[in-house]
Specification:
Layout: E1 3-8, E2 17-26, E3 29-31, H1 32-41, H2 50-55, E4 60-62, H3 69-87, E5 90-97, H4 111-117, E6 124-126, H5 134-148, E7 152-160, E8 178-186, E9 191-200, H6 209-233, E10 241-246, H7 251-261, E11 268-269, H8 283-293, E12 302-309, E13 313-321
Parallel strand pairs: 5-6, 5-7, 10-11, 10-12
Antiparallel strand pairs: 1-2, 2-8, 2-9, 3-4, 7-8, 9-13, 12-13
Helix pairs in contact: 6-7
Length: 334
């Protein structure tokens, strides 16, 4: 999926927070063979070979070779700002997430763009410390804010761009470049937020195998508790969950979550893993857009979004897909 794509529904009115619009950018893909070779030249020692990655459905990595970090952000933000202007939607806060290392002089790269967007007085909150589970941290905070200011909206931006061959590799999964943005509003949008929570579990600072094993057990137990609690509190059963939109972490992560929650692994939906690989804070939206465009979701379906990140972080949200009708959806180009 190259270039810009949007999904928007502005007419739905329900008394909860919704994802009302999003915009995504994924650059061209690079075969993992090339990424592996570049990393080896820099001294990285892999514990797995290309064939093993292929067995997990990992073939290519999204790599941006032309646009700057700011240009990637502009690519996804500007269409949403224009739509907000046309609809009279007020953006009250901007939340920004990234996991890539940024030089000190790049940390204020929003400054020039904010004035051009007419948002120079809008506060920006950065969530670098939440790593790849920032999406749910933003949803959790947005729910609180928008319930007290229902006539305003929040703009969430996620963007990552590697600067060095080693930025793209780990022992378990490759990390791809991408940018994404979405508008969160109260009572407007096809993707209704029914419940959300996020957490930082404890961190192990030594190499005690028993402590590490216990930490992993508790980590997955807490994810299970989030999922089961949200299902029960909303009067649902596990069987009522149509799909789980997770970030593109290694297979063993979601195999464990499926086993502990009772949700079949076949419902864990992450097609973007096969092209862009793990695109940090954009995975969920890329996977959700794929499902909408390929009609994997039907009106009224309940679904989860799940993210896991470094430092024992994870997030979970229960959503309902409730478009007013298919003709009200204005899909972008793919």
């Amino acid at each position: 999926m190259n270039g810009l794509s949007n999904e928007e529904v502005w007419t739905m009115t329900t008394e909860t927070v919704h994802i009302s619009a999003w915009s995504l950018y994924q650059p061209d893909n690079e075969p993992i063979r090339n990424v592996i070779q570049e990393a080896k030249r820099e001294g990285y020692v892999f514990t797995r070979d290309e064939a093993e990655f292929n067995q997990e459905g990992i073939y290519t990595v999204a790599m941006e070779k032309h646009l700057t970090h700011l240009q990637m952000i502009e690519r996804v933000v500007e269409p949403l700002i224009e739509k907000c202007r046309k609809k009279g939607t007020t953006i009250a806060e901007i939340w920004f997430a990234q996991t890539s290392m940024v030089a000190w002089h790049d940390r204020n790269f929003f400054k020039s763009a904010l004035a051009r967007w007419g948002l120079e007085h809008v506060p920006i909150y950065a969530l670098e410390e939440y790593s790849c589970s920032s999406f749910h941290s933003v949803l959790k905070n947005a729910k609180i804010m928008l319930e007290h200011a229902p006539n305003e909206a929040i703009l969430f931006i996620g963007c990552d761009k590697g600067r060095h061959p080693l930025d793209y590799v780990t022992d378990y999964v490759f990390v791809g470049d991408s940018s994404s943005a979405c508008i969160l509003e109260y009572g407007k949008g096809a993707h209704q937020l029914l419940a959300v929570d996020s957490k930082h579990d404890k961190v192990i600072y030594d190499n005690d195998e028993e402590k590490i094993k216990q930490a992993y057990q508790l980590y997955y137990l807490h994810i299970r508790q989030f999922v089961i609690r949200m299902i029960k509190q909303n009067g649902l059963k596990v069987e009522d969950i149509k799909l789980v939109f997770c970030n593109n972490m290694p297979n063993f992560v979601w195999e464990t979550v499926a086993r502990t929650t009772g949700i079949p692994l076949s419902k864990f939906y992450r097609p973007s893993l096969h092209t862009g690989c793990h695109m940090t804070n954009s995975d969920v939206l890329f996977n959700l857009e794929h499902a909408v465009m390929h009609e994997a979701l039907a009106p009224g379906d309940y679904y989860f979004s799940l993210t896991t990140g470094t430092g024992g972080s994870f997030g979970c949200a229960l959503h309902r897909y409730c478009p007013p009708n298919h003709t009200d959806q204005n899909q972008g180009d793919y």
